């Protein structure tokens, strides 16, 4: 393996392009890089790779920072807070790359290439028809100074290509995949600066990592094949090479990698639906990383239990059921006041003032998302929709039961225990055959939170109306 950081100086980063809302794959990659840094008291950098200006309107940068903050990821250096290795937006770093292009050209490790898109397409077509893998054949490698000058005079704008040695093998250690070997001849001279002067992704990305002192690059497997090229660039420039680990991609239900381009489920969507950040953290931290603890963990404990050796190579699939499991755990970990703060924006004044905390305490074990709480708020304080099972439970007991239910409730003055005891005596029903019809009449459902906690919220008056309606049905 490559050089290893010590627990004292680990520096990792997340380097997204602000071209859309962060999806769960991006978030998982950011999280692993952050957990690695936090698990070793290291430094975590946020860098924006915004060179695709057409696809990087300002809204996405703002959203990206907000979404990461909501998620609970913080950074020690970044575009909004600066640091010793800035700027942290690639568009503001363009001038930095010039010296490295010049150095590569001076040492003969890069050369201008005047081949047009048509020339290159034709070359690839010939290679393919001969059963060879397409790669640049090196036509502009050894152009004379005069030939270059003639092309420049004709107004041709060259790309800059990295000159790869024709022979040899490059061994690339990877923290997740182990050592991989690449025949240099197969890589082909590749473009490091486009003809419009903009840097190719893997050039700017590698230089920035080196200049920013990043010594651990954890990123998606989509970058696996960029790594040998990036190592060659860094070696040619005498810059430090970080350790690399490529994380398996997160796939959607269609089996395709989640991608901003194709509108995958975003952190923003989940937040809008009411998912709690610690739920998403617990879900994603375990997607492709083994934790021995199965309990809900806070981010400090997730960092403490994180180890690069526990990362799996298997691709992860987005699993809504697992996410809901962690959401349920996260909801249970809140105290009632925090749970109310979470729910309030979603409940649209459906809970009367003063009833907020008792309402939360009553329904918390039965909700995963705010939509569930909204349903229970309507069942408590408005008119509950009746499901078929509940309707059957109501007609299953005779009219005498419902007459007795109304009288005993009034006599008990709304006290749940006194009421159900008196009704048991009056009707002869007990256990499930007593409670199920009551629950059905009062809430419109046959399962849910404790009736004893719901009755005070429903109140005696509404309860009597519902019992009366049940009597009419039976
Ligand atoms: N499906 C995925 N699963 C895990 N990590 C991913 C996935 N897609 C991208 N990443 C990682 O997220 C980080 C940021 O990547 P980037 O901003 O290019 O996202 P992207 O979704 O690939 O965007 P785009 O669709 O615009 O190419 C990179 O480390 C990349 O490898």
UniProtKB/TrEMBL annotation:
Summarize where ATP binds, as residue positions.
Answer: 260
Q: Could you tell me the keywords of this UniProt record?
A: Aminoacyl-tRNA synthetase, ATP-binding, Cytoplasm, Ligase, Nucleotide-binding, Protein biosynthesis
- What's the catalysed reaction? tRNA(Glu) + L-glutamate + ATP = L-glutamyl-tRNA(Glu) + AMP + diphosphate
Family classification = Belongs to the class-I aminoacyl-tRNA synthetase family. Glutamate--tRNA ligase type 1 subfamily.
Task: Give the CDD domains listed for this entry.
Answer: GluRS_core (cd00808)
* Compartments reported by the entry: Cytoplasm
The task this protein performs is described as: Catalyzes the attachment of glutamate to tRNA(Glu) in a two-step reaction: glutamate is first activated by ATP to form Glu-AMP and then transferred to the acceptor end of tRNA(Glu).
User: Sorted alphabetically, which PANTHER family does this protein's record hold?
Assistant: GLUTAMATE--TRNA LIGASE (PTHR43311), GLUTAMATE--TRNA LIGASE, MITOCHONDRIAL-RELATED (PTHR43311:SF2)
Alphabetized InterPro entries for the sequence: aa-tRNA-synth_I_cd-bd, aa-tRNA-synth_I_codon-bd_sub2, aa-tRNA-synth_I_CS, aa_tRNA-synth_I_cd-bd_sf, Glu-tRNA-ligase_bac/mito, Glu/Gln-tRNA-synth, Glu/Gln-tRNA-synth_Ib_cat-dom, GluQ/Sye
Find motif ('KMSKS' region) and give its ranges: 257-261
According to its UniProt entry, this protein's organism is: Acidithiobacillus ferrivorans
Asked if Glycoprotein is a keyword of the record, the answer is no
Q: Where is this motif: 'HIGH' region?
A: 16-26
A Pfam family of this chain: Anticodon_2
State the protein's name. Glutamate--tRNA ligase
Q: What is its main location?
A: cytoplasm
């Amino acid at each position: 393996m490559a050089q290893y950081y010590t627990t004292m100086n680990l520096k990792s980063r997340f380097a997204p392009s602000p071209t859309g809302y962060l999806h769960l794959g991006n978030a998982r990659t950011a999280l692993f890089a952050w957990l690695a840094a936090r698990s070793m008291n290291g430094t975590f950098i946020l860098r924006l790779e915004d060179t695709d200006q057409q696809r990087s309107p300002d809204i996405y940068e703002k959203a990206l920072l907000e979404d990461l903050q909501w998620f609970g990821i913080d950074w020690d250096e970044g575009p909004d807070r600066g640091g010793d290795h800035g700027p942290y937006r690639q568009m503001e770093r363009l001038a930095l790359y010039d010296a490295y292009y010049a150095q590569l050209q001076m040492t003969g490790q890069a050369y201008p290439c005047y081949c047009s898109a048509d020339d290159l397409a034709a070359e690839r077509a010939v290679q393919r028809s001969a059963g060879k893998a397409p790669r640049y054949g090196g036509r502009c490698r050894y152009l004379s100074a005069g030939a270059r000058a003639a092309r420049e005079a004709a107004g041709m704008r060259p790309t800059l290509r990295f000159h790869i040695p024709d022979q040899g093998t490059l061994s690339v250690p990877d923290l997740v995949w182990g050592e991989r070997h690449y025949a240099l001849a197969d890589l082909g001279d590749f473009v490091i600066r486009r003809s419009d002067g903009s840097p190719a992704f893997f050039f700017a990305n590698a230089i920035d990592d080196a200049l920013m002192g990043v010594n651990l690059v954890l990123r998606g497997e989509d970058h696996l094949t960029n790594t040998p090229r990036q190592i060659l660039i860094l070696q040619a420039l005498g810059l430090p090479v970080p350790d690399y680990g490529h994380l398996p991609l997160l796939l959607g239900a269609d089996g395709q990698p989640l991608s901003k381009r194709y509108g995958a489920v975003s952190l923003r969507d989940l937040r809008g639906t009411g998912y709690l950040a610690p739920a998403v953290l617990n879900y994603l931290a375990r997607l492709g990383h083994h934790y021995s603890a199965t309990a809900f963990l806070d981010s400090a404990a997730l960092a403490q239990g994180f180890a690069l050796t526990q990362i799996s190579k298997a691709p992860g699939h987005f699993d809504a059921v697992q996410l809901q499991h962690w959401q349920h755990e996260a909801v249970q970990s809140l105290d009632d006041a925090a749970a109310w703060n979470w729910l309030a924006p979603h409940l649209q004044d459906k809970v009367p003032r003063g009833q907020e905390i008792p309402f939360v305490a009553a329904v918390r074990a039965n909700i995963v998302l705010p939509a569930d709480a909204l349903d229970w708020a309507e069942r408590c304080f408005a008119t509950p929709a009746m499901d078929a099972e509940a309707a059957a439970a109501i007609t299953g007991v005779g009219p005498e039961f419902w007459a007795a239910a109304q009288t005993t409730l009034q006599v008990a003055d709304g006290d749940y225990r006194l009421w159900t005891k008196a009704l048991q005596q009056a009707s002869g029903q007990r256990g499930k055959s007593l409670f199920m019809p009551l629950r059905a009449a009062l809430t419109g459902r046959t399962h849910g939170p404790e009736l004893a906690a719901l009755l005070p919220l429903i109140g005696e008056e509404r309860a009597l109306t519902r019992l009366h309606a049940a009597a009419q049905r039976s």
